[in-house]
Amino acid sequence: MTISLRGHHLLCLLGYRGMGYSEDFCVNMTNIYEMLRNEPGTEIEIITGPDDVCRAYPPDKAYHCEGNVYDLDEAVLAKLGLTVNERSSWQEICDRVAKRLIPSDISKLCTTCPWEKYGVCQEGVGLVVEGRPLPKLSV
Ligand code: SF4
Q1: Is the CB of 11 under 6 A from ligand 1?
Q2: CB of 12 closer than 6 A to ligand 1?
Q3: How many angstroms separate the alpha carbon of residue 122 from the centre of ligand 1?
Q4: pTM for this prediction
Q5: How many separate domains does the chain show?
Q6: How far apart are alpha carbons 121 and 13 in whole angstroms?
Q7: Could you tell me if the CB of 13 is within 6 A of ligand 1?
Q8: 135/133 Cα distance (integer angstroms)
Q9: 54 CA distance to ligand 1 centroid (A)?
Q10: How far is the CA of 28 from the centre of ligand 1 (A)?
Protein backbone atom coordinates (compact mmCIF):
# COMPACT_ATOMS: atom_id res chain seq x y z
CA MET A 1 0.00 0.00 0.00
CA THR A 2 1.21 3.50 -0.83
CA ILE A 3 0.23 6.53 1.23
CA SER A 4 0.08 9.87 -0.57
CA LEU A 5 1.31 12.76 1.51
CA ARG A 6 1.92 16.45 0.85
CA GLY A 7 5.05 18.07 2.25
CA HIS A 8 3.89 19.50 5.54
CA HIS A 9 1.97 16.37 6.55
CA LEU A 10 5.27 14.51 6.78
CA LEU A 11 5.90 16.58 9.90
CA CYS A 12 2.31 16.77 11.16
CA LEU A 13 2.35 12.99 11.45
CA LEU A 14 5.36 13.13 13.78
CA GLY A 15 3.44 15.36 16.17
CA TYR A 16 0.01 13.80 15.84
CA ARG A 17 -1.26 12.76 19.28
CA GLY A 18 -4.96 12.32 18.57
CA MET A 19 -6.01 15.95 18.17
CA GLY A 20 -7.76 16.91 14.93
CA TYR A 21 -10.60 18.64 13.15
CA SER A 22 -13.32 16.01 13.64
CA GLU A 23 -13.83 12.41 14.75
CA ASP A 24 -13.60 11.07 11.19
CA PHE A 25 -10.49 13.13 10.56
CA CYS A 26 -8.85 11.68 13.67
CA VAL A 27 -9.81 8.09 12.81
CA ASN A 28 -8.18 8.46 9.39
CA MET A 29 -5.12 10.25 10.79
CA THR A 30 -4.66 7.68 13.57
CA ASN A 31 -4.90 4.84 11.05
CA ILE A 32 -2.20 6.41 8.88
CA TYR A 33 -0.02 7.25 11.89
CA GLU A 34 -0.24 3.72 13.33
CA MET A 35 0.34 2.08 9.96
CA LEU A 36 3.53 4.07 9.48
CA ARG A 37 4.63 3.51 13.08
CA ASN A 38 4.12 -0.26 12.81
CA GLU A 39 5.27 -0.65 9.20
CA PRO A 40 7.97 1.96 8.58
CA GLY A 41 8.77 0.33 5.24
CA THR A 42 5.42 1.61 3.90
CA GLU A 43 5.85 3.52 0.65
CA ILE A 44 5.08 7.24 0.70
CA GLU A 45 4.37 9.13 -2.51
CA ILE A 46 5.00 12.86 -2.17
CA ILE A 47 2.23 14.78 -3.90
CA THR A 48 1.08 18.36 -4.39
CA GLY A 49 -2.17 19.44 -2.79
CA PRO A 50 -4.85 17.43 -0.97
CA ASP A 51 -3.60 13.99 0.12
CA ASP A 52 -4.64 10.93 2.14
CA VAL A 53 -4.84 13.08 5.29
CA CYS A 54 -6.87 15.87 3.63
CA ARG A 55 -9.44 13.43 2.27
CA ALA A 56 -10.95 13.11 5.76
CA TYR A 57 -11.09 16.85 6.38
CA PRO A 58 -14.64 17.67 7.58
CA PRO A 59 -16.80 19.22 4.84
CA ASP A 60 -18.54 21.54 7.32
CA LYS A 61 -15.32 23.30 8.39
CA ALA A 62 -13.54 26.13 6.56
CA TYR A 63 -11.57 24.42 3.81
CA HIS A 64 -7.87 25.10 4.09
CA CYS A 65 -6.21 22.38 2.02
CA GLU A 66 -5.50 24.82 -0.84
CA GLY A 67 -3.81 28.21 -0.81
CA ASN A 68 -1.02 29.38 1.50
CA VAL A 69 -0.40 25.91 2.84
CA TYR A 70 1.34 25.07 -0.47
CA ASP A 71 4.18 27.35 0.63
CA LEU A 72 4.59 25.30 3.78
CA ASP A 73 4.61 22.08 1.72
CA GLU A 74 7.42 23.49 -0.43
CA ALA A 75 9.40 24.72 2.57
CA VAL A 76 9.20 21.34 4.31
CA LEU A 77 10.19 19.42 1.17
CA ALA A 78 13.13 21.76 0.57
CA LYS A 79 14.28 21.31 4.16
CA LEU A 80 14.11 17.52 3.78
CA GLY A 81 15.65 17.48 0.30
CA LEU A 82 12.57 15.80 -1.19
CA THR A 83 10.60 16.60 -4.34
CA VAL A 84 7.02 16.14 -5.47
CA ASN A 85 6.32 12.77 -7.17
CA GLU A 86 9.20 11.16 -5.29
CA ARG A 87 8.51 7.83 -3.60
CA SER A 88 10.29 6.83 -0.46
CA SER A 89 9.67 4.62 2.55
CA TRP A 90 8.43 6.23 5.75
CA GLN A 91 11.65 5.08 7.41
CA GLU A 92 13.75 6.93 4.82
CA ILE A 93 11.72 10.07 5.45
CA CYS A 94 12.28 9.75 9.21
CA ASP A 95 16.00 9.29 8.53
CA ARG A 96 15.98 12.57 6.60
CA VAL A 97 14.16 14.31 9.45
CA ALA A 98 16.80 13.02 11.87
CA LYS A 99 19.64 14.32 9.69
CA ARG A 100 18.18 17.64 8.55
CA LEU A 101 15.84 18.99 11.23
CA ILE A 102 15.98 20.09 14.82
CA PRO A 103 12.84 20.55 16.93
CA SER A 104 12.92 24.37 16.80
CA ASP A 105 12.62 24.24 13.00
CA ILE A 106 8.90 23.60 13.55
CA SER A 107 8.34 27.05 15.03
CA LYS A 108 10.18 28.62 12.09
CA LEU A 109 8.36 26.61 9.41
CA CYS A 110 4.84 26.39 10.82
CA THR A 111 4.14 30.01 11.74
CA THR A 112 0.51 29.92 10.61
CA CYS A 113 -0.52 26.58 12.11
CA PRO A 114 -2.95 26.54 15.05
CA TRP A 115 -1.42 23.31 16.38
CA GLU A 116 2.12 24.67 16.62
CA LYS A 117 1.61 26.15 20.08
CA TYR A 118 0.97 22.74 21.64
CA GLY A 119 4.60 21.73 21.16
CA VAL A 120 3.75 18.19 20.07
CA CYS A 121 5.36 18.56 16.63
CA GLN A 122 8.61 19.84 18.12
CA GLU A 123 8.48 16.90 20.51
CA GLY A 124 7.88 14.49 17.61
CA VAL A 125 10.87 15.81 15.67
CA GLY A 126 12.92 15.49 18.86
CA LEU A 127 11.97 11.82 19.24
CA VAL A 128 12.99 11.07 15.64
CA VAL A 129 16.26 13.02 15.99
CA GLU A 130 17.06 11.01 19.13
CA GLY A 131 16.17 7.73 17.41
CA ARG A 132 13.32 7.08 19.82
CA PRO A 133 9.93 5.64 18.78
CA LEU A 134 6.81 7.72 18.31
CA PRO A 135 4.15 6.93 20.95
CA LYS A 136 1.46 4.35 20.24
CA LEU A 137 -2.04 5.78 19.79
CA SER A 138 -5.26 3.87 20.23
CA VAL A 139 -7.21 3.40 17.00
S1 SF4 B 1 2.88 22.76 13.61
FE2 SF4 B 1 1.07 22.37 12.31
S3 SF4 B 1 1.80 22.34 10.16
FE4 SF4 B 1 3.58 22.19 11.54
S5 SF4 B 1 3.97 20.00 11.71
FE6 SF4 B 1 2.66 20.56 13.43
S7 SF4 B 1 0.54 20.24 12.78
FE8 SF4 B 1 1.85 20.24 10.95
Answers
A1: yes
A2: yes
A3: 9
A4: 0.96
A5: 1
A6: 8
A7: no
A8: 6
A9: 14
A10: 17
Average pLDDT over the chain, rounded to an integer: 96
CA 109 to chain centre: 13
Q: For the segment 90-132, what is each residue's pLDDT rounded down to a tens digit?
A: 999 999 999 999 999 999 999 999 999 999 999 999 999 999 9
Residue 91 C-alpha to ligand 1 middle, in angstroms? 19
Residue 136 lies in a domain: no
- For residue 134, tell me if it sits in a domain: no
Q: With CA atoms as reference, report the closest residue to 79 among 64, 98, 62, 63.
A: 98
Does ligand 1 come within 6 angstroms of the Cβ of 92?
no
* Nearest CA-CA partner of 127 in 34, 7, 37: 37
CA of 41 to the centre of ligand 1 (A): 23
What is the Cα–Cα distance from 97 to 44, expressed in whole angstroms? 14
Spell 1-31 as b/e; 16+ CB within 10 A means b. eebbbbbbbbbbbbbbbeebeeeebbebbbe
Residue 110 lies in a domain: yes
Residue 135 belongs to a domain: no
Boundaries of domain holding 117: 2-129
